[in-house]
Automatic annotation (TrEMBL):
Coiled-coil zones: none
Protein name: Amine oxidase
Keyword terms, alphabetized: FAD, Flavoprotein, Oxidoreductase
Positions annotated to bind FAD: 37-38, 216
Residue ranges of every copy of the Amine oxidase domain listed in the record: 17-467
UniProt enzyme class: oxidoreductase
UniProt family annotation: Belongs to the flavin monoamine oxidase family.
Organism: Wickerhamomyces pijperi
GO molecular function: oxidoreductase activity
Entry's EC annotation: 1.4.3.-
Keyword presence, tRNA-binding: no
Keyword Flavoprotein: yes
Binding site for substrate: 348
Length: 472
């Protein structure tokens, strides 16, 4: 009589949606698993909090690309009750504001910026071998069209084009032109809220196999690579047949000695370590303002707040002179100035009749606000004055500022491309993995890169790969 083969065991490092999905799928095939999560909660970049007026997502808010989003499909297949909807398409009326108030739709900024995006695509196709900062192409476009645009259009387009910063989480002087454009495979839907999606997943886990507040510090391939041993921060070691490293890309990019660093033994192949040099990490952040009452218009769902162009910008475009760089960090006033950065506003008054506004910010502003949370309202107040058309605006009853850049186990928002970066290299290298050391997360997928559904799909992929490897 032959004994049944002992159950295979997989250790999952990181309890975000990628790690959780991997665990669920492994469990379905009776593969034993343990999840080690550094923080005191599961979910990683899915984090829903409750304020005075309801729930807010500090990390992901939207289901992106809903024509090609398997997580969205799965959620919707479970029903979307009319009296308790799981999503809201917040793509109704949108308004654009600058320092002086509402920007007239007759400036046709959307049409011009759409043409500009096309121009950037054409430039990229014509020059496949090099990559410029996206902002340089914005300037080139404005120079090439300056006889066709009014001064007001040139000034406002230069800043409206920066809206992409609120997608990538980095400023457009740092953003790669090649990877600036956003694929749009379907409408984006606000998820109401991601805690529901997370709970549906975590409820499927065996809670005894989940270890919170347990950072992993080392991963070693042992027994000629047939087993993997992981080391926890307290020095404890555990052995498994495989490991799925589902920590953020920013953690894989740390150097020895930095908080959160994971030591791999033997070292990861150069294919992986070198590829991690060709990608960066952005810092999208959020400031949530809750007020007593609604005192601003409810006739729009989203707003773009345009920054001021640097002094002399228009003249430089018209005279073909060097265009001044825009301010990235602190100005001479000691901290970042409101009108130096574009912002994206989600108007809860327009979407849900609630007196709240969610303001999205990008690097380096996010880093500053997340480490100086007490100035967040002062920074945002001029935007709210413009948005409401009132100088005398009440203070919020609650200000919530995200913490992604300050969390040593996150260190920002998601992968982002600087000029010259090649996001494909790390994706291919991490997808290949290193024997039974596997990788999952938003930074390891092509479809849904940077997104929740991408991270989820990567967990599914790694579970499938191990199930096949184990011959199950
Ligand atoms: C502000 C913001 C807005 C976003 N908006 C959207 C959006 O609207 N739509 C969308 O689709 N996506 C959005 N995203 C991206 C999305 O949230 C992520 O792509 C996705 O949640 C990543 O999941 P993950 O499992 O790959 O990583 P994570 O969720 O980061 O999980 C990784 C986990 O690893 C843990 N960890 C790190 N180091 C260790 C260690 N040494 N040991 C153990 N555990 C460790 C971390 O604590 C973390 O919990 C947003 C992200 C942010 C920050």
């Amino acid at each position: 009589m032959s004994l049944p083969a002992p159950a295979k065991k997989v250790i999952i490092i990181g309890g975000g949606i990628a790690g959780i999905k991997a665990a669920i799928d492994l469990q379905k095939k009776s593969v034993d698993y343990l999840i080690f999560e550094a923080k005191g909660r599961l979910g990683g970049r899915l984090n829903t909090v409750t304020g005075f007026h309801g729930k807010y997502d500090l990390g992901a808010s939207w289901f992106h690309e809903t024509l090609n989003n398997p997580l969205f499909d799965e959620e919707m297949s479970l029903g979307n009750p009319i009296d308790d909807p799981k999503i809201f398409y917040d793509d109704g009326p949108k308004k654009i504001f600058n320092k002086d108030g509402i920007v007239s739709p007759f400036l046709k900024l959307d049409s011009i910026v759409n043409e500009l995006f096309k121009y950037v695509d054409i430039c990229n196709e014509e020059d496949l071998d090099s990559d410029k900062p996206y902002y340089e192409n914005v300037i080139n476009y404005l120079r090439s069209r300056k006889h066709l645009l009014t001064d007001e259009q040139i000034t406002n387009v230069s800043q409206y084009a920066r809206s992409l910063e609120l997608w990538h989480g980095i400023d457009s002087q740092m953003l790669s032109s090649k990877y600036a454009s956003i694929d749009n495979e379907g409408r984006d839907a606000l998820c109401l809220n991601y805690d529901r999606v997370l709970k549906r997943h975590t409820d499927q886990l065996d809670q005894e196999k989940v270890f919170l507040n347990t950072p992993v510090t080392g991963v070693s391939r042992i027994e000629k690579g047939s087993k993997v041993e992981i080391e926890l921060k307290d020095g404890k070691k555990l052995v498994a047949d495989a490991v799925i490293v589902a920590v953020p890309q920013s953690i894989l990019q740390l150097s020895a000695g930095e908080d959160g660093y994971i030591e791999f033994s033997p070292k990861l192949p150069a294919k992986i370590t070198d590829s991690l040099q060709s990608i960066h990490f952005g810092a999208l952040g959020k400031v949530i303002l809750e007020f007593e009452d609604i005192f601003w218009p409810t006739d729009f769902e989203r707003a773009s707040i345009l920054s001021d162009p640097p002094e002399g910008f228009l003249r430089a475009i018209k005279d073909n002179k060097d265009v001044p760089e825009f301010t990235r960090n602190k100005s001479s006033h000691g901290h970042p100035q409101t009108w130096d950065f574009p912002a994206f506003v989600l108007n809860y008054a327009g979407c849900f009749q609630k007196p709240s506004l969610v303001i999205l910010t990008q690097q380096p502003l996010t880093n500053y606000l997340e480490s100086n949370k007490d100035i967040a309202w002062k920074h945002c107040k001029p935007m709210i004055q413009v948005l409401s058309g009132k100088t005398d605006v009440p203070d919020p009853i609650n200000v919530i500022v995200t913490n992604w850049t300050q969390d040593v186990y996150q260190r920002g928002a998601y992968s982002a491309c600087y000029p010259g970066d090649d996001p494909l290299m790390p994706i291919l290298a991490l997808e290949e993995g290193f024997g039974n050391v596997r990788f999952a997360g938003e930074h390891t997928v092509l479809e849904g890169a940077g997104c929740v559904h991408g991270a989820w799909s990567s967990g599914k992929r790694e579970a499938e790969a191990l199930i096949e490897r184990f011959g199950l």
